[in-house]
């Protein structure tokens, strides 16, 4: 029994080490990409309130498109992970080519929609002075949609092979380019016209292009990838493989979009309470979003590890890897919850010194501490299911958890029960908790059905 326990502990330790090796670069890449959005917002704020509002409105409209389409392409990660586990090298190269075609197919409608949203702005009640700037911002950033999606395709392909460091370095380069590009185009430096918030859109398009070139250069030149013959000759899109990508990826994209929109709806509901409430909410939600990058990065590693085991036809190993990943994710999020509970005022002081905003933000950070475990549980459980290529039922779970439970509970607690902003956050906790429990129960059930 002693020997068995020691062996098991050693296996767990090895798996944790591999998870962190794969997951940490993903976490870093996500945080770097978040920092670009932060820099855009801060620099737009230096221009005028109208420019800042235009970037905020434009970004809120852009985000669902990007989340949905990039989510669709995330299907390539478990597909490639299973192929590498089964040693199907020819199919790995084919997956890379087909996901690049998918990125182009998805980018074309995104490009045209983002360039023709003036009527939508008026419909949702955006003020007249902001519409031209927000529209110009979206038209400018639309030029970056093609490289942004193609970058995502190559990144998710590499993540399926557990190669995650290149995307981190590419994101670092993008972050370093973003600041001077913003400065030159927004403020009209080096002989360029002063474009204001529209310049932010063009700067982002330039950054996306550089990131795609960097990821393409790595994928083309990385010697271990040569055996996959990714770029050997020109190949047309193949219906069979595109159908597989979409059947797995569309539910991922919809699931991710439902989660993002749940948070967006709660933000809109908070904005109806007071200016102070939305300011405090923005502080708390921004910090919570940064903490979320930790379990999200680990979920990518979990998908790759589980998918690799399934490809080798080892469902027992897949279950072990999945639940070790979920355990690690929850342990880390327990630590972040403790950190939030111990140092809420210190966290808020990074964002604001206003006493009234601080009071609200501290209250909401306590709510954020509660859902740290739920957030870790749901995203890592969903990551494990992605490794099984099981995405349709989880999509319905997210629909129920976020839209049929989370948002109604948020509305009830916030307005009918009268708890205000903390009550609205109670809905977030409910939705994330239900999703977390159900995703993990499904992963247990599915691996048991496979013979684990």
Helix content: over 70%
Order of helices and strands: HHHHHHHHHHHHHHHH
Average pLDDT score: 89
Low-confidence stretches: none
Distance between the termini: 21 Å
Tell me the strand percentage band: under 5%
Rg calc: 22 Å
Q: Number of folding domains? A: 2
How many β strands by DSSP?
0
Shape: globular
Look at the helices and sheets and give the structural class. Answer: mainly alpha
Number of helices: 16
Largest sheet: none
Describe this structure in words.
The protein is mostly helical. It folds into 2 domains: 17-237, no CATH class; 250-452, no CATH class. 84% of the residues lie in helices and 0% in strands. The chain has 16 helices and no strands. It has helices at 2-45, 49-73, 76-85, 89-114, 118-123, 131-142, 145-160, 165-187, 197-221, 239-271, 275-311, 315-342, 344-349, 355-387, 392-416, 420-449. Helix 4 (89-114) runs antiparallel to helix 7. The longest helix is centred in the first third of the chain and has 44 residues, at 2-45. The mean pLDDT is 89.
List the main descriptive attributes of the protein structure presented here:
452 residues, 2 domains
Describe the SSE topology.
Blueprint: H1 2-45, H2 49-73, H3 76-85, H4 89-114, H5 118-123, H6 131-142, H7 145-160, H8 165-187, H9 197-221, H10 239-271, H11 275-311, H12 315-342, H13 344-349, H14 355-387, H15 392-416, H16 420-449
Helix pairs in contact: 1-2, 1-8, 1-11, 1-12, 2-4, 2-6, 2-7, 2-10, 3-4, 3-7, 3-11, 4-6, 4-7, 6-9, 7-9, 8-9, 10-15, 10-16, 11-12, 11-14, 12-14, 12-16, 14-16, 15-16
């Amino acid at each position: 029994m002693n020997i068995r326990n020691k062996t098991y502990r050693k296996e767990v330790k090895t798996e944790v080490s591999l998870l962190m090796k794969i997951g940490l670069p993903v976490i870093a890449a996500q945080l770097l990409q978040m920092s670009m959005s932060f820099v855009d917002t801060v620099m737009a704020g230096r221009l005028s309130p109208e420019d800042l509002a235009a970037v905020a409105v434009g970004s809120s409209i852009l985000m669902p498109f990007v989340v949905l389409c990039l989510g669709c392409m995330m299907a390539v990660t478990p597909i490639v992970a299973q192929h590498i586990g089964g040693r199907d090298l020819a199919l790995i190269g084919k997956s890379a080519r087909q996901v690049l075609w998918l990125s182009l197919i998805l980018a074309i409608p995104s490009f045209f929609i983002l360039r023709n949203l003036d009527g939508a702005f008026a419909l949702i009640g955006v003020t007249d002075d902001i519409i031209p700037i927000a529209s110009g911002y979206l038209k400018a950033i639309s030029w970056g949609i093609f490289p942004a999606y193609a970058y995502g395709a190559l990144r998710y392909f590499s993540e399926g092979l557990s190669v995650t460091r290149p995307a981190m370095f590419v994101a670092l380069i993008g972050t370093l380019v973003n600041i001077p590009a913003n400065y030159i185009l927004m403020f009209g430096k080096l002989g360029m016209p002063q474009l204001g918030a529209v310049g932010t859109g063009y700067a982002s398009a330039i950054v996306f292009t550089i990131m795609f070139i960097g990821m393409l250069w790595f994928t083309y030149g990385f010697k271990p990838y040569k055996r996959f013959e990714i770029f050997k000759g020109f190949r047309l899109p193949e219906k069979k493989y595109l159908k597989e990508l979409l059947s797995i990826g569309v539910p991922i994209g919809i699931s991710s979009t439902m989660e993002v929109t749940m948070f967006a709806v709660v933000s809109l509901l908070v904005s109806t309470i007071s200016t102070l409430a939305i300011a405090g909410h923005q502080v708390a939600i921004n910090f919570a979003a940064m903490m979320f990058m930790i379990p999200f990065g680990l979920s990518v590693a979990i998908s790759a590890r589980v998918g690799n085991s399934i490809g080798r036809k080892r469902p027992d190993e897949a279950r072990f890897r999945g639940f070790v990943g979920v355990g690690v994710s929850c342990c880390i999020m327990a630590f972040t919850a403790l950190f939030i509970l111990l140092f809420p005022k210190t966290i808020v002081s990074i964002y604001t010194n206003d006493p009234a905003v601080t009071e609200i933000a501290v209250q909401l950070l306590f709510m954020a501490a509660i859902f740290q475990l739920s957030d870790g549980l749901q995203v890592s459980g969903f990551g494990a299911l992605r490794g099984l290529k099981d995405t349709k039922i989880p999509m319905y779970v997210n629909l129920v958890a976020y839209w049929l439970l989370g948002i109604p509970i948020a509305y009830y607690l916030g307005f009918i029960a009268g708890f205000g902003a903390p009550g609205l956050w109670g809905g977030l906790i409910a939705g994330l908790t239900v999703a977390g429990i159900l995703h993990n129960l499904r992963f247990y059930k599915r691996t048991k059905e496979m013979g684990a």
